[in-house]
Amino acid sequence: MSETVIAVAVETADAPLVLDVDHVSMRFGGLQALSDVSVRVSPGEIVGVIGPNGAGKTTLLNVMSGLLRPTQGRVVVGGRESTHSSVHKRASLGLARTFQRVTLFSDLTVREHVQLALDVSRGLWTIRSRSRTPETAELDATSFLRQVGIARLAEADVGTLPLGQARLVELAMALATRPVVLLLDEPFSGLGATERDDLADLLLELRATSGPGIVLVEHDVGIVTRLADRLAVLDFGELIADGQTQSVLQDANVRRAYFGLEEAVG
Known about the structure:
six-stranded mixed β-sheet, 10 strands
């Protein structure tokens, strides 16, 4: 484990969790999508969630964000019991999310999307930051677009953007709500090489500045290895490993389930 990861672990060891998914199960009729899964996220920590297709990763994010209510277990957001809370209520506690399938308003500009996110969160913002006023909305929007590297696209219609840039608009909107925990569902999908590097640098910067706790669902093992402090690995809805990234990647069950590798004999 790198020195950076060790520093983060020490700094967040005694901090309150921003997200606590506690022994959650999710059943759809006869399908057990999640079985007794626990995932905990500290402030400024990046937790990667990986697993084969159909392992339950998106279902887990839906339970975390409030789109699904678990059959068993509980979800705590920002120290508040949220198992039966709505998506809106969890957002008010500081949870934000991006989606694998980007859904934006094709007739709005990039800047207008971020301003919309700022306007929606205005009631939350008056609690978290008294300094924000309507007059600063445009400046605020520009700052978040600059943060994700797309300030040059501020006046572009979202409907004209390729998938990778549309994902960055969604991320800017999420960051504009000042989340304490950020759920990212395949955020690197569709990005070019430069955009991927820039996004990885941004997430590392958020971690270094004690930004939101991040849950990162991502298929690119190289990206996950670079970014995640800890890994949670799902297989057929079960948590088969949870721990420091490098240790988890060497786990025999993970190598077999995720990489299709069998340990050498002898």
